Every structure is written in C-alpha cells, then in structure tokens.
Amino acid sequence: MDPTPRRRPPARPSAQTFLRRRLGAATVLLVGGFLLIRLASALLGGDGDGTSAAAGTASGAALTEEPTRPEATELPGGGRRIFPDRRVVALYGNPADDELGALGIGTPDQAAKRLRGIARSYARRTRPVLPCMELIATVAAAAPGDDGKYRIRVPERTIDRYLRAARKAGAVLLLDIQPGIASFPEEVRRLKKWLVQPDVGLALDPEWRIQPGQVPGRVIGSVSAEEVNAVSIDLAALVKERNLPEKLFVIHQFTNDMVRDKQRVEIRPGLATVFNVDGFGLPAAKVSKYRDFTASTPKGAHDGFKLFFREDTNRMRPAAVMALDPRPDLVIYE
After folding, report:
1. Does residue 163 contact residue 170 with C-beta atoms inside 8 Å?
2. Which of 175, 231, 233 is nearest to 199 (CA)?
3. Is the distance from CB of 35 to CB of 28 less than 8 angstroms?
4. Which positions of the chain have pLDDT values less than 50?
5. Beta carbons of 119 and 321 less than 8 angstroms apart
6. Is 3 contained in some domain?
7. Is residue 5 part of a domain?
8. Dihedral sign of CA atoms 230, 202, 9, 33 in order
9. Range of the domain at 251
10. Are residues 154 and 176 in contact, defined by beta-carbon separation less than 8 angstroms?
11. What is the DSSP letter of 137?
12. Could you tell me which of 318, 309, 329 has the C-alpha nearest to residue 6?
C-alpha cells in the first residue's frame, strides 16, 4: 500500500496524478477550471429545502453558560456510551461528486439505506452496530478561493439534509474536515451549531491539512498533536457543558507521520477517540499497515479501519475485517 493520497487509478500512473485524483473529479483543475466550478456550484447552490435540522437546541453557535445543567441526552438507539457498547460502521463522502466517496452517491436517504445493509454484516448479539454517515463538511480544493484557504465549506442546508437522513436511519452524523490551509480549530468553530447535538461527531482528515505555499493534492498534509489537542479540549468541554452522550472523534491517517507526535495526543473523557487507518491496496498490505499503526495507538484511544469500494483490490469482506487484531471499533467504507 503506497503512502500516496487515498484515491488513485488502478493503472498506477505518476505520483502527481495520484495526488491530483484524490481531490476528486470535481476539484482538480484539469479542464480549464470547469470541474472546480462544478464543485463550488454543487456545494454552494440550492440542494435542500431551506429548513434546518440543527435548529432548536443548536440555534446559537456560541457556547454560553447554562443556568442549570441541561437534561442528559442519548445516542441513536439509546445509551450514552459508544465504545465498547457498540461498533460503529460508516459510509464516507460528499454529494458534490461520487469521487469524494460513497456517501454522496444518490440521495441521503438512499445512502442511509445502503449503510444499513452494510452495517448488518457487522452486528453481533453482544455488540450491536451504530450506523454513521461521515459527511465531508469542509472539502479541500485545488484552487485557493477568495480567502486563499484552498477549501470549500459545505452549506448549512447540505449538512442539515444529511442530519435528517441520519436521524431517520438511527445513525450518527460525523462531520469530516479537509481544511486546506485553514486550521482544524478554525473549521470546527463554524460547525459548533451541529456539534451541540447528541448525534453529531467530528473527524479530522490531516492528509488535507497543508501549509502556506502548498496546494492540496500536490503534497500529503499532516497535523501536530498540539492542534489535535486544541480541538479535543473544546469538544470535550462541549460534551460536559451540554450533558451530551459520548461523542465520536476520529483522526484519519495513512502515513506514519500524518499525526506528528501521535503519543502526545490527549484522550479526553466524553470523547470516543478513534485513530482510523486509511489506505487502499491488497488485503495483505492493508492488514500489515493496520498492525503497524495500531501498535502506536495512544492508550485509551480506539482503532478504526477503512475500506474502499473502488481502490481496494480484492476488497476485504466483513468476516476478514472482524478477524483483524485488534478488532476495529470503527469500520468506514469509502
């Protein structure tokens, strides 16, 4: 399994092509900018009914002190703890283009139906599955945009559509961030109106966390433990202040240095912290990478494993995934 961005054609062209293709057909400026414009139009145009699923308890983005402790809320299906009570099975993507992942293929309700079918294969009598829809809420872009941040923010109505679909399916919504030159804390701040909800979690995608002077898709990004900790301290405080159930907090990685000083990442109460092993290829290579990465998982964190519908060769079946050691708490399909 090559240390290249996670999406590439099977013919193994140049490394630069690997990097560009992972941006998705909608974000690479290969046709006079047309495809990037298509993505911007899909993300910023009207694709919802204008109503907000996050309205009500999430009407304000700011976190203000409550005069009394809010009433405790539960996860979909009941309970307040994710692990080890449940195993999470997720579908990943964005509706702007199916190159961005399987979640964006079809309507949110159609994606939810597909997710439920996949999740059934992982359910056990002693450990039921918690379905999850991982929506890329901030998409890395090949052009800087008006603010020079190399990222496009999905509009609120799109997030609301997927939250409604997740709730109908009894799933959690996981908001994924590909920040470009922006920092993770900067992007998390604008998502707090959803993160105050008991069924919304957060995922960081360091592959797309680049530095000034770099362009997503031309380099592989990374994140420091310090930046991850800055995010998690605020997220854990949110869980405590709002009396929320355990919140899913995922950090993706597919190279050893993608999370710098990984052992210094703090594992905080109230967060079900998962280091998810990305990367595609033959099963033997994926299993080897999984064993390598999970050996360095910080104490108290959990392990995740990603499968790719298009890029994996001889994609592993659920039985093979469940035979991994350690058995993953989170399984994601892209």
Report:
1. no
2. 175
3. yes
4. 1-64, 66
5. no
6. no
7. no
8. negative
9. 15-333
10. no
11. E
12. 309
With vertex at residue 211, the alpha carbon angle to CA 279 and CA 101, rounded to the nearest 5 degrees, is 35
Q: In this predicted structure, what is the pLDDT of residue 114?
A: 96
Cβ contacts of 82 within 8 Å, gap of 6 or more: 75, 88, 130, 245, 246, 248, 272
Q: E-assigned strands of the chain?
A: 87-93, 129-140, 151-153, 172-177, 200-204, 223-224, 247-253, 259-260, 271-277, 302-307, 330-333
- State how far the Cα of 184 lies from the Cα of 190, in Å rounded to an integer: 11
Distance CA 319, CA 278 (A): 19
Which CATH number fits the domain that encloses residue 109? 3.20.20
How many other CB atoms are found less than 10 A from the CB of residue 117?
A: 9
Does the N-terminal peptide bond of residue 9 adopt cis geometry, omega within 30 degrees of 0?
no
Per-residue model confidence (pLDDT) at position 31:
31
Angle between helices 156-168 and 108-120 (to 10 degrees): 40
Give the per-residue pLDDT at 99: 87
Q: Is residue 258 in some structural domain?
A: yes
Identify whether the C-beta of residue 288 lies closer than 8 Å to the C-beta of residue 256: no
Straight-line distance from the first to the last Cα atom of the chain, in angstroms, rounded to the nearest whole number = 16
Q: What is the pLDDT of residues 27-76, one digit of tens each?
A: 433 333 333 334 444 444 444 444 444 444 443 444 445 457 889 999 99
CB 228 within 8 Å of CB 208: no
